[in-house]
TrEMBL record:
Gene3D superfamilies: Vaccinia Virus protein VP39. It comes from Schizopora paradoxa. This is S-adenosyl-L-methionine-dependent methyltransferase. It holds the Pfam family Methyltransf_25. One of its GO terms (biological process) is methylation.
């Protein structure tokens, strides 16, 4: 496992609370967005001795799950800018290879290596101006005919004044740090510009709040945890006066969710490198 340090623009913390949140989030997204399939596009086939990459892997939850479903000859790579959330190497399967690498600069020797690249929820990890570079890098490392699966989402639309305040805080924070949710609506063009073909965008909504059952409760908790973990970045950016005041605002937001319900929209994007 490599440990080279590269510039990190991720605005969430890398600590135990975030690790637990990411693992829980993976289970919910796998069930309710991916329909229980790690490779949600059924046209993508992984064969013996193929290589697969999970870019921006975080805790490697997707890569670990996939490793249990494919032949041991399939080599699974996971990259991130930090090893803090990676599993211990001695606990990882032999076919999982963890590397420190940016999605804007993969190793040169990876050109034309991968059958599949999976990347999820990095809108707040990759700055807006770097997305064309990141997609070009994915194009470079894919084999001809290989596929990319991208999954991105945005906070739910405001259902009351508290959620509107939270949304405005997040948007302002993203502007300060060079990130943008506007890219969610540009992936088809960005991928085409990078050389991809067969670009498809599917929108999946995850409703929560207003007595929508156990899944709703789980996702409400994950949304709340993610927003809570943004507190230090908001405070550092001068956007909130105190963490305590922000937590009170999040309490009000949760009450709005319970009363009115809301929905988290995920965009599932698939594209292929020409054969």
């Amino acid at each position: 496992m490599e440990t080279d340090k590269q510039t990190d623009f991720y605005i969430l913390p890398r600590d135990e609370s975030e690790r637990l949140r990411l693992d829980t989030q993976h289970g919910i997204v796998l069930k309710h967005v991916y329909d229980g399939k790690h490779v949600f596009d059924e046209t993508v086939k992984i064969g013996e001795n193929d290589c697969v990459l999970d870019a921006g892997a975080g805790t490697c939850s997707w890569a670990l799950g996939l490793s249990a479903q494919v032949p041991k000859s399939v080599q699974i790579y996971a990259t991130d800018l930090s090893i803090k959330n990676f599993p211990s190497p001695e606990l990882a399967p032999a076919n999982l290879h963890m590397h420190i690498a940016s999605s804007t600069q993969f190793p040169l020797e990876w050109s034309n290596k991968f059958t599949l690249v999976h990347q999820r929820l990095l809108i707040i990890g990759i700055r807006a101006k770097e997305w064309p570079i990141a997609l070009s890098e994915i194009f470079r490392i894919l084999k001809p005919g290989g596929a990319v699966l991208l999954v991105e989402g945005r906070p739910p639309p405001p259902t009351g004044p508290a959620m509107e305040k939270v949304s405005n805080l997040i948007i302002t924070l993203l502007e300060q740090t060079g990130h943008s949710y506007d890219l969610l609506f540009q992936f088809d063009k960005l991928l085409t510009d990078a050389g991809f073909k067969d670009v498809h965008v599917h929108i999946r909504g995850v409703p929560f709040g207003k007595e929508l059952g156990d899944a709703s409760i789980e996702y409400s908790r994950i949304m709340r945890a993610g927003l809570t973990n943004l507190g230090p970045a908001l405070e550092k950016g001068g956007l909130i006066s105190s963490r305590a005041e922000y937590l009170v605002l999040l309490d009000e937001m949760e009450r709005e969710w319970r009363e009115h319900g809301s929905e988290f929209d995920c965009r599932l994007v698939t594209a292929r490198k020409p054969a």
